[in-house]
Design brief:
The complex is a heterodimer. Chain A is mainly α. Chain A contains twelve helices and no strands. The longest helix of chain A has 30 residues. The chains are: A mainly alpha, B mainly alpha.
Chain lengths: ~260, ~280
C-alpha cells in the first residue's frame, strides 16, 4: 500500500503543475453547470409543474452532490489517455501491478477537484436554502461500491479502446455523452418519464453516478440499489481483469 | 475587388481540397469513419435527450412546451453541427491548443495567409456532418410537430442565426484563447473550456433566471444568445427589434474583440514564439 499512496500523493501534487489558469477553467465549467441545473429545477418549481413526489430540495441537493463528488461517481483513470500517448508502457517497467498504479494515480487526482468544488457547492446550496441532512446513511456503502464499480467500468472502456485501435477521442466523447445520460450524473432517474429511470437505476452504468446521491437525498430506496451495485461490482471486476490481461498484447500507442 | 475575388477563389479551392481529403479518409478507413459518424449521431441524440426527457416528464421547461423544447434543442444541435462541420478539424475551433502548444509555427511557414488557413483547415464535410444531420432531422420533426408556417424570411432568419451561433462561439474561443499567447501551458485548454461552457449552459432555457444573471449570459458570456434567444425569435415568442438584433450585435462585437486580441497575441508570438516540444517529440 505504501507504493499506492506514494503514487497517489505524486499525482495530487502534479495536478497543480500548470497553475491556477489551468485549474480554474474546469471548476468554472462545473460551477456554471451546477448553477444552470439548479435554475432548471427552480424554473420547474416556479412554473408549477407537477413534481410527482420530488421536492425541490431533493433535486437541488442531488445536483450539488453529483457535481461535488463527480470524480468519484464517474471514475476516469488515465488509462485511455496513456494508451493513446504511450505513457502506459512505462507502467510495465515499474514493480507494481498496472491496474493498481492506474487506480493510485486516479485516487490522487481526486483530492484537488473534490476539495475545490466542495466550497462553491456548499455555498450554492446554503444560498438556495438546501437542507443537507441525508435521508439514509446507506449512501456511504453505496458510494464505495460506486467507486469500485467505476474502476471496473473504466478498465473495460480501456479494453474497448485497445480493441478499436486507439480511437481515444471518439471513445471519450461517446463515454461522456452516454455517462451524462445513462448514469444519472445530470438528471436523477426519478425525474425521467415513462418509468425508464426504474430500469436505468439497476443497470451497470445507472448504478454509478446516480446511486449514492439518490440514496442520500431519498429519491431511491437503498436495498435494490445496493444489491445491484454489489452484483455488478462482483461481475465486472473479474471481467475487467480478464479482458485487460487479454488486451495488453494488442496495445498500440502513438507517443508524442 | 480583384484581390477579394482571388482570395475567395483560393479559399474555396482549399475547401474543395479539405473536402476531398476528408472524403478520401472516409473511403480509405471506412470502419473508423463509420464509427466516428455513428458516435456523432449518438452524441447528438444524447445532447438533446436530457432536457427533452425532463420536458416530457414535466410538460415543458423554462417557458417552453415539450414540442418547443424539441425545436430549441434541434436549433442548438443544428448550430453546433454547422460549426463542427466547418471548424472541427485540426483544433481550429480550440485555437488555444494550437497557440499554447506552439503549433502556429506550422502555419506560419505555409505560403497562405493565416486567416485563410484558419478558415479552411477545419472543414470536414463528411466526417464532421453527423451532428448537423441529427440537428436538421430533429428540426424538421419539431417544425412539423409545431405546425409552423415556414416562409422564406423565416428560413433566412434560421440560417442567419445558425451563422450567428458559429460567430459567437468562434468569437469567444479566439478572444479567450488569445490568453495562450501569454501563458501557453496554463491556458492551452481555455478555448475548450469556453466552448464546453457554451455547450453545458446553451442547451438549457434561461427562463426563471435573476435579471443580472440573464443579462450576464446575454453579454459577457453570451450563451443565451447562441440558441435560447434565437429559438424564441424563430418560435415567434420574441418580436422586439432589439432582441432580434441582439445576437448579431454581440456576435459582431465578440468577433471584433477576438480579432484584435488575436492580432495582438500574434505580434507577441512572432517575437517570443512558444517552444514546448522536446527533441524527442514530447511536450512540456
Amino acid at each position: 500500500m505504501k507504493t499506492f499512496w506514494a503514487t497517489a500523493r505524486m499525482c495530487m501534487v502534479e495536478k497543480s503543475y500548470f497553475g491556477l489558469g489551468n485549474l480554474i477553467g474546469e471548476y468554472l465549467l462545473r460551477t456554471v453547470g451546477l448553477m444552470v441545473m439548479l435554475m432548471v429545477w427552480r424554473s420547474l418549481a416556479l412554473q408549477g409543474a407537477d413534481m410527482q413526489g420530488l421536492s425541490l430540495n431533493q433535486l437541488m441537493m442531488y445536483t450539488i452532490l453529483t457535481t461535488v463528488l463527480r470524480p468519484l461517481l464517474d471514475v476516469r483513470t488515465p488509462a485511455s489517455d496513456w494508451l493513446h500517448d504511450g505513457t502506459v508502457l512505462s507502467l510495465y517497467l515499474r514493480p507494481a501491478p498496472v491496474l493498481s498504479q492506474l487506480a493510485a494515480y486516479t485516487v490522487g487526482g481526486w483530492c484537488l477537484p473534490v476539495a475545490i468544488m466542495t466550497l462553491p457547492g456548499l455555498l450554492t446550496g446554503v444560498t438556495c436554502g438546501v437542507d443537507f441532512r441525508p435521508a439514509s446513511l446507506l449512501f456511504l456503502p453505496s458510494l464505495v461500491l460506486s467507486v469500485a464499480e467505476g474502476f471496473a467500468v473504466d478498465f473495460l472502456f480501456a479494453c474497448l479502446l485497445i480493441r478499436l485501435k486507439n480511437l481515444s477521442w471518439v471513445m471519450e466523447c461517446l463515454r461522456t455523452a452516454l455517462c451524462a445520460l445513462l448514469t444519472g450524473a445530470v438528471i436523477p432517474f426519478a425525474a425521467l418519464p415513462w418509468g425508464i429511470g426504474r430500469f436505468l437505476a439497476l443497470t451497470p452504468l445507472g448504478t454509478l453516478a446516480g446511486a449514492a446521491p439518490a440514496i442520500y437525498v431519498g429519491l431511491e430506496s437503498p436495498g435494490p440499489i445496493l444489491l445491484a451495485q454489489a452484483c455488478w461490482t462482483v461481475l465486472l471486476w473479474p471481467l475487467a481483469i480478464w479482458r485487460f490481461r487479454r488486451a495488453r498484447e494488442k496495445m498500440i500507442s502513438y507517443g508524442g | 475587388m480583384k484581390g477579394a475575388i482571388s482570395y475567395l477563389k483560393e479559399l474555396f479551392g482549399l475547401y474543395r481540397l479539405y473536402g476531398r481529403m476528408d472524403l478520401q479518409w472516409f473511403l480509405q478507413d471506412s470502419r473508423n469513419s463509420l464509427i466516428l459518424l455513428a458516435v456523432d449521431v449518438v452524441l447528438g441524440v444524447a445532447d438533446l435527450a436530457g432536457l427533452m426527457l425532463l420536458a416530457v416528464r414535466f410538460q415543458g421547461v423554462g417557458g417552453f412546451s415539450a414540442r418547443e423544447v424539441l425545436f430549441f434543442l434541434a436549433f442548438y444541435e443544428t448550430g453546433n453541427g454547422f460549426l463542427t462541420m466547418l471548424f472541427c478539424n485540426y483544433n481550429v475551433l480550440n485555437i488555444s491548443r494550437r497557440v499554447g502548444r506552439g503549433q502556429l509555427d506550422h502555419m506560419l511557414i505555409q505560403p497562405r495567409p493565416l486567416a485563410m488557413q484558419l478558415l479552411a483547415e477545419g472543414f470536414a464535410p463528411v466526417s464532421g456532418c453527423g451532428k448537423l444531420l441529427v440537428g436538421l432531422a430533429v428540426l424538421i420533426v419539431a417544425c412539423v410537430g409545431l405546425h409552423m408556417r415556414i416562409t422564406p424570411v423565416w428560413v433566412l432568419m434560421l440560417m442567419l442565426y445558425v451563422i450567428c451561433y458559429g460567430a459567437l462561439q468562434i468569437g469567444q474561443s479566439y478572444l479567450w484563447g488569445s490568453l495562450a499567447f501569454y501563458i501557453p501551458a496554463a491556458f492551452e485548454e481555455i478555448s475548450s473550456v469556453i466552448l464546453d461552457l457554451n455547450g453545458a449552459v446553451g442547451r438549457y432555457p434561461l427562463a426563471g433566471l435573476p435579471r443580472w444573471l440573464a443579462a450576464g449570459l446575454c453579454t459577457v458570456l453570451p450563451v443565451g444568445l447562441t440558441a435560447y434567444l434565437p429559438a424564441r425569435v424563430l418560435l415567434g415568442k420574441v418580436q422586439t427589434p432589439w432582441q432580434i438584433a441582439l445576437p448579431f450585435a454581440v456576435a459582431a462585437a465578440f468577433l471584433w474583440g477576438a480579432g484584435r486580441a488575436f492580432r495582438r497575441g500574434m505580434r507577441r508570438y512572432l517575437t517570443h514564439s512558444c517552444n514546448r516540444y522536446r527533441d524527442m517529440g514530447f511536450r512540456n
